[in-house]
Amino acid sequence: MKNKEFQRRLVYDTLILLGVFTVILFMCRLWPLILLCILGLFAAMIRLLFLSRKETVIIQSVPQEPAKAETEKALQQLAFELAIRRITERVTDDFPQARWVWKSQHAKEDILSGRDTAILLNQAGGYREAIVHIQNLQVAGITYGTSPEPEQEAPEVPEPDEEPASNPDSQAAEAEPVASAPRVDYELLACEWVELHVMELNSRCNECIANGDSELAIPASELPDPQCWEYICRELVSSGIKECNPTDEGIKINLKQKNCRKE
User: Fold this and answer.
1) Is residue 122 in a domain?
2) 81 with 123, same domain?
3) Count: domains in the chain
4) pLDDT means per 10 residues in the chain (263 residues)?
5) Is residue 237 part of a domain?
6) Among positive and negative, which fits the CA dihedral 253, 256, 261, 263?
7) Cβ-based burial of 69 (10 A; exposed 0-12, middle 13-18, buried ≥19)
8) Phi first, then psi: what are they for 219, rounded to 5°?
9) Are residues 219 and 248 in the same domain?
10) What's the pLDDT score for residue 260?
11) Are residues 135 and 103 in the same domain?
12) Whole-model pTM over 0.85
């Protein structure tokens, strides 16, 4: 590169000298020498153009890197969502009306580490709890808790031929009521309902705010048992929907403060 630059400069100087000689010879009227100088000028200019030409550098295109694989975090989230779907399918296959929630707040960590985790059940044939078995980030099976005990019928007391003297102890034993049916956990039912509908409610709140409505009414047809409406309002408040109150027709959400969070 340096040698080529030197040659170019030398030809440039030669071209200047030939131009000066041509002017001098023209003043002296030496036509044959002027012709030679003109030929020399043409030769020098052609050489200068050749040396001044820039070399074309061919740049090979670098092949694009293949698309990166999904990050580990995205794969873990996908595995967790798939586990939730499998648990729901298995529970509803056994008990179509059943609902479930996580028993522990660290259920995701348990699943990703391959440990078994527990869930709480409602309307599952009397079962209140189940163990989810995890293997290779997949749901291998579900073991339900102890079977619900059937209601025991009151034993029949044979009637004696003669009425014995009244005995307070025996009367108290006969008056003992039969074990009542298991109580419905309305708080758990409300938690399940809010967990399943909170995204939809936030979308409906945002639509009502955009339309200029001041409140959103959730009719009773969309809600579970009325006895858990108060618990549903509490769960909605903890989820970011600040002002909601149960009514005779359902639940009303106040939108004046724009209390619906944006998802």
Assistant:
1) yes
2) yes
3) 3
4) 75 83 84 84 83 70 58 85 90 89 86 89 86 87 69 48 49 47 72 82 83 83 82 82 81 69 47
5) yes
6) positive
7) exposed
8) -70, 160
9) yes
10) 53
11) yes
12) no
